[in-house]
Design a protein that fits this description.
- The complex is a heterodimer of chains A (about 325) and B (about 290).
- By secondary structure, chain A is mostly helical.
- Chain A has 12 helices and 2 strands.
- Chain A folds into 2 domains: about 50 residues; about 250 residues, MetI-like fold (Orthogonal Bundle).
- The two termini of chain A are about 20 Å apart.
- Chain B is an all-alpha fold and about 290 residues long.
- Chain B has a single domain, classed as MetI-like (MetI-like fold), CATH 1.10.3720.10.
- Classes of the chains: A mainly alpha (about 325), B mainly alpha (about 290).
Chain lengths: ~325, ~290
């Protein structure tokens, strides 16, 4: 650390030269200190201001649609820009179903990965594995979408969907023409995208469980799996739930990859093979082409709903994660 | 790793041992299943991208449909312009707010800001796009690089704020006290001693935020909007790499699909380089610097 030294030394000299002067004046004083604190405070207030601005902008933009349709906006399924009739139920439904499919697929895998990395794998493999799964989180959404269009969708159309339709068609979830593009494709790509989030936070809360818990359970003669189940997972369950909800929050707001594979048709169908539409995708597709103020306002209202839902989901998740990791030292960034 | 129960295997029931083995296989299987898409995505990117990557791609603007050739040079430049605007906005505010939280914000008000930053972090990117549209595009009357930069800049702030705070808090209190003891003013201590000690960690945070917004597409759709031609003006619609990849991917033309893969490869190379730089910076990180 050679950088700061000259500063410190000059201050020392200045201090030595004028020993009678109060120290508070050295380093150009009280005023600059206050100015600095005010500047930093302004940056902090900026963060508050931004969230207030987001809420204000969304509320202002959506008043027109709110006055026209009220609460019923979210429960009507007609989306007719020509006659200016708007209802968001098809998008709400699409968002919920695609996120649910994603969670059903992602949660077991993400937990498996977290358990393997924290409890089972040899030490030399830990770093590389953690890094690789986190690399999944760094891939931009549009690249997931690109890959899904040209690789995942053909696989679904030719192999997976005919197979599911043949053996599980009776459930009603897997019937109809296997287009490839549709709810199932969106759910799978979302699952791949939320796995790194769920598994990295699960890892964090599992690491927060004290080592003595593990040793105590092992000393009672438990096998390693019994130790993980009773000693670790049970103690970390609130945090793991938080991790899952955080994944849900990400899935709800995810836009590009879903838009590229879900089919973008505002229909409600029981089958996962059918195309759908989500709240985020309808904004992405129609916002810049929206003609008419009511149309734009309806889209902004969907944005407001999306904002409020993800905020609530994220706050809930934070509280759950804190309940486990509270009192732990700040985690080091490796 | 040997099983912890090696010595008394005989006393552990066959069923319990079986479950243990099954759980291990299950967890390892999950890892393999998760790695498959990762490898597949990178494999396809390299396989499809390298074939379409050539000098023209990096130096020319897009050609009209049907004409072969052309490239994404204007989109690469546009992405750089938008990211530059975003960084100018997001980095100073983010670091400033982080300094406030670490050095002055150990109170109720600080908690409120900390909480708000976490909330901002969870806002879907498309919603940020709507806000940037409302405050910049509507005010200007047309789409612009500035609007895209504002949207991405807002997204950078919470990540940088929390990373800066976390890193500043890791700097030992004694270092600050040593500076105070020498008569250094508090603001000078914060900037020249504390922030400098934590600099590699703060840079890590900035790079992470940068990597996160570099590939963002959704907030650019109706802010930067895209452009077929060169544009260096910040108040004009601008092409961006991620936007171009999206437009080409959903188009029905093979030639454009080819270019979408090449664009995606360039994008991922930029991001992987940034993330790797983060790893290097972190391994020579601030913890080594202070201890």
């Amino acid at each position: 650390m050679s950088g700061p030294q000259p500063v410190a030394q000059s201050e020392v000299i200045a201090g030595a030269r004028s020993q009678s002067e109060p120290l508070i004046k050295a380093g150009s004083g009280y005023l600059s200190d206050s100015l600095f604190e005010i500047a930093m405070l302004a940056c902090g207030v900026c963060v508050l201001g931004l969230v207030a601005l987001i809420i204000y902008e969304l509320a202002r933009g959506s008043t027109l649609s709110w006055h026209a349709f009220g609460w019923k906006f979210f429960f009507r399924s007609d989306w007719d820009p020509v006659n200016e009739q708007f209802g968001a139920w098809a998008f709400v439904y699409g968002t919920l179903v695609s996120s649910l499919v994603a969670l059903v697929l992602a949660v077991p895998l993400a937990l498996g990965v977290a358990i393997f990395i924290t409890e089972m794998c040899p030490a030399w493999l830990k770093g590389p594995l953690a890094f690789t799964t986190e690399l999944l989180a760094a891939i931009p959404s549009v690249i997931y979408g690109l890959w899904a269009i040209f690789v995942l969708v053909p696989i679904l159309r030719q192999y997976l969907e005919p197979f599911l339709g043949k053996y599980f068609g009776w459930t009603g979830l897997f019937e109809g023409t296997p287009y490839g593009i549709g709810m199932l494709a969106a759910g799978i790509i979302l699952a791949i995208m939320v796995i790194p989030i769920i598994s990295s936070i699960t890892r964090e809360v599992m690491t927060a469980v004290s080592q003595q818990q593990r040793e105590a359970v092992l000393a009672l003669g438990a096998t390693r799996w019994e130790m993980i189940r009773t000693g670790v997972l049970r103690n970390a369950r609130a945090g793991i739930l938080g991790a899952i909800i955080l994944g849900l929050g990400r899935a709800l707001g995810e836009t590009m990859a879903v838009t590229m594979v879900i089919g973008n048709r505002p229909e409600i169908a029981r089958s996962l093979f059918a195309p759908g539409y989500t709240m985020a995708s309808v904004i992405a597709n129609e916002f810049s082409e929206a003609t008419g103020n009511t149309y734009l306002s309806a889209l902004i209202e969907i944005g407001l709903a999306l904002f409020l839902v993800t905020i609530i989901v994220n706050i809930l998740a934070q509280v759950l994660v804190w309940s486990v990791t509270r009192g732990m030292p700040a985690r080091g960034h490796a | 790793m040997p099983s912890p129960n090696n010595s008394d295997l005989t006393r552990v029931g066959l069923w319990r041992r079986g479950k243990d083995v099954l759980a291990t296989i299950g967890a390892a299987g999950a890892v393999v299943l998760v790695l498959v898409p990762l490898i597949a995505i990178f494999g396809y990117l390299v396989y499809k991208g390298i074939g379409s990557l050539n000098w023209a791609f990096l130096t020319e603007t897009p050609k009209p449909v049907g004409e072969p050739g052309g490239g994404m040079a204007n989109a690469i430049a546009g992405s750089c312009l938008i990211l530059l605007i975003a960084s100018c906005l997001g980095v100073p505010i983010g670091i400033g707010a982080g300094i406030y939280l670490a050095e002055y914000g150990r109170n109720r008000f600080g908690d409120l800001i900390r909480f708000t930053a976490d909330v901002l972090n969870g806002v879907p990117s498309i919603v940020i796009g709507i806000v940037a549209y409302g405050i910049v595009v509507l005010a200007q009357g047309h789409f612009s690089a500035l609007a895209g930069g504002v949207a991405l800049g807002i997204m950078m702030i919470p990540t940088i704020t929390r990373a800066t705070e976390e890193m500043l808090l890791l700097v030992p209190q004694t270092i600050r006290e040593a500076a105070y003891g020498l008569g250094v003013a508090r603001w000078r201590t914060t900037l020249s001693i504390t922030l400098r000690t934590a600099s590699s960690g703060v840079i890590t945070g900035v790079m992470l935020a940068f990597a996160r917004v570099a590939g963002e597409t959704a907030p650019l759709l109706f802010t930067a909007f895209g452009n077929q031609y060169w544009n260096w003006k910040i108040n004009q619609p601008t092409a961006a790499l991620s936007l171009q990849v999206f437009t080409y991917a959903i188009s029905p033309f093979d030639e454009w699909h080819r270019q979408a893969w090449a664009g995606a490869l360039i994008l991922i190379i930029l991001i992987v380089v940034a993330v790797s730089a983060v790893r290097v910076a972190a391994s020579h990180g601030m913890l080594k610097g202070t201890s």
